[in-house]
Design a protein that fits this description.
With 278 residues, this protein is α/β, with parallel strands linked by helices. It has a single domain, classed as Rossmann fold, CATH 3.40.50.1820. The protein has helices spanning 2-30, 36-47, 95-104, 126-152, 167-176, 200-206, 226-235, 253-270; strands at residues 53-56, 63-68, 77-82, 107-112, 160-165, 182-188, 211-216, 241-246. It has an 8-stranded mixed sheet with strand order 1-2-4-3-5-6-7-8, sandwiched between helices. Helix 6 (200-206) links the parallel strand 6 (182-188) and strand 7 (211-216). Helix 1 (2-30) packs across helix 4 and helix 4 crosses helix 5. The longest helix has 29 residues, at 2-30. The radius of gyration is 19 Å and the shape is globular.
């Protein structure tokens, strides 16, 4: 836990210092306006029962997670959910229904949001731009590490699966590569963030544990070279990699429930004695 906090603080401090140097005037102008994430968290604290709140991190770098215990005396494990950029921890598409439905199915769930995005700047030198990107990556990975450590303390958490949506799927994959306690990944319409230093294809190729990639029919190409990822999995004999193509369930509660039911079915298969035979 201490290491995760230090990683988050280092990334946050580096990011803050770099931003102050390249954008001090605009930061001052915006100082009176709370960031989007703060407004979202305030709304969640007012509308989501306080028993679900998990304040993670320290001081001004803390952030809100939403926890639901497994509706079972013997939880099957835990799932950490990470929304896309700009989405809060109770986002109505996938995140909110998944955290509730998976909890009802016997999994602890914790959902978090990504930190606010960097302002787009086209006038920065390459070294400065890369430094900001590296600092932001450290901040995000540190945030995910704190959430994983928090889940680890819950009774019956057992094995943890990461479920990421959009760019949250990319960061879930990046963070999981640095942790031994993440046993499986679910990537929903994964998308590489701007200035990402590692390709989605390379990260997937190096992940040898169970992985479910959910793609939206007709929008597969927005997730990069999804066909290459499937072919690489076959070439490497990665039998625990699976692609699932579905119609976009956005705005259709019944379709969202069916999708999460399929995700839960995949998790149930992993929960048995053959969870990770490699």
């Amino acid at each position: 836990m201490r290491l995760a906090i230090m990683l988050l603080l280092v990334g946050t401090a580096t990011l803050a210092n770099a931003q102050q140097k390249v954008d001090a005037d605009s930061q001052t102008e915006r100082a009176a306006l709370p960031p989007r994430s703060q407004l979202q968290e305030t709304a969640l604290e007012q509308n989501v029962p306080s028993a679900q709140h998990r304040r993670l991190g320290e001081g001004t770098d803390s952030f809100l997670g939403l926890f639901l215990p497994a509706a079972s005396p013997a939880p099957q494990g835990a799932v950490l959910l990470i929304g896309d950029q700009g989405e809060h921890a109770n986002w109505p598409e996938l995140i909110s229904p998944a955290r509730q439905q998976l909890s009802e199915a016997g999994w602890h769930t914790l959902s978090i949001a990504l930190p606010d995005a960097l302002p787009l700047r086209l006038d920065l030198e390459k070294a400065t731009s890369e430094g900001l990107a590296d600092a932001r990556a450290s901040q995000i990975i540190g945030r995910i590490a704190l959430a994983l450590d928090s889940l680890r303390t819950e009774n019956g958490a057992g094995e943890i699966t990461l479920l990421g949506r959009g760019s949250g799927a990319y960061w879930a994959l990046r963070a999981a590569a640095e942790r031994d306690d993440v046993k499986a990944l679910i990537l929903y319409q994964p998308r590489m963030p701007t200035q990402a230093s590692e390709s989605l294809e390379a990260l997937v190729m190096n992940w040898e544990k169970p992985l479910l990639e959910v793609l939206l029919k007709g929008r597969e190409t927005s997730s990069g070279d999804y066909q290459a990822r499937a072919l690489n999995a076959k070439r490497l004999g990665h039998q625990q990699y699976r692609q699932l193509t579905v119609h976009d369930p956005a705005g259709r509660p019944q379709n969202q429930r069916m999708l999460i039911k399929r995700i839960n079915g995949w998790l149930d298969q992993l929960a048995g004695p053959q969870r990770n035979p490699r």
